[in-house]
Specification:
This protein is of the alpha+beta class and about 150 residues long. The chain has two helices and eight strands; from the N terminus they run H-E-E-E-E-E-E-E-H-E. The longest helix is centred in the first third of the chain and has 16 residues, at about 25-40. It binds nickel (II) ion (NI).
Length: about 150
């Protein structure tokens, strides 16, 4: 595994929509492993492939409950609301209040291409929303209600 360079705000790769993953091969597995190691190194709870310069629909999340890998994720249900502090490894040192659904159900493929569904609440729901938006070329900054000093 290797630590990859995290692209920062202003880097054009962060503002482009990502392409679906089609090959569930060793290259994808290395990418996912590297993303997880990179996320952990910088104390993040989620990382999307474009943040390491790869325009593919793949994210890793770990909000404390273990590693979650979502390939080609699609949010299929959301409910409730939560407002809380959010940050991003691509925007270091900046935190802001963002409103998100409290519960999110996502359909995604695992690293071998198998489809599954999972539901997250609170911080996990927030991370799923934040990371899937990266795949659309969007940063959380657009959603901030109030920046936290
Ligand atoms: Ni982010």
């Amino acid at each position: 595994m290797a630590i990859r360079v995290v692209r920062k705000k202003g880097d054009e790769v962060l503002y482009k929509p990502c392409k679906p993953v089609k090959d569930f091969d060793n290259k994808l597995h290395i990418l996912l492993d590297d993303m997880y190691e990179t996320m952990k190194k910088y104390d993040g709870v989620g990382l999307a492939a474009p943040q390491v310069g790869i325009l593919k629909r793949a994210v890793v999340i770990d909000v404390g409950g273990g590693k979650v890998e979502l390939i080609n994720p699609e949010i299929i249900e959301e409910s409730g609301e939560q407002t809380g502090s959010e940050g991003c490894l691509s925007v270091p040192g900046v935190y802001g209040e963002v409103t998100r659904p409290n519960d999110v159900t996502v359909k995604a493929q695992d690293r071998n291409g198998k489809w599954f569904k999972m539901t997250g609440e609170e911080l996990l729901a927030r991370a799923i929303c934040h990371e899937t938006e990266h795949l659309e070329g969007k940063l959380f900054l657009d959603r901030v209600i109030k920046f936290i000093e």
